[in-house]
Amino acid sequence: xxxxxxxxxxxxxxxxxxxxxxxxxxxxxxxxxxxxxxxxxxxxxxxxxxxxxxxxxxxxxxxxxxxxxxxxxxxxxxxxxxxxxxxxxxxxxxxxxxxxxxxxxxxxxxxxxxxx
Length: 116
Ligand SMILES: [Zn+2]
What we know:
By secondary structure, the protein is mainly alpha-helical. About 65% of the residues lie in helices and about 0% in strands. It has helices spanning about 5-30, 45-75, 90-95, 105-115.
């Protein structure tokens, strides 16, 4: 992977990061729900809606963390290196998922462990 490719990926990740931050912000502010968790007990209907919003926001946060971590690795020069075994992740993997932290082998192992 050359510098130009890395710069392109970084641009894309930065774009995604900005977009995610806006979305999370919108979700977390909500409309009428506010961010005060204590008040949820009194308003059961709203609490469910808030929960849906909040779990959507949580999912986006997870994605945001991946994107930020990938950007960090690009900056450190460790992008494309497997976090488990230190081998190159491979461009084919990164093309499918530009935030992939693991090489194909470790990814497979992780998936097997998840199931077990
Ligand atoms: Zn690996």
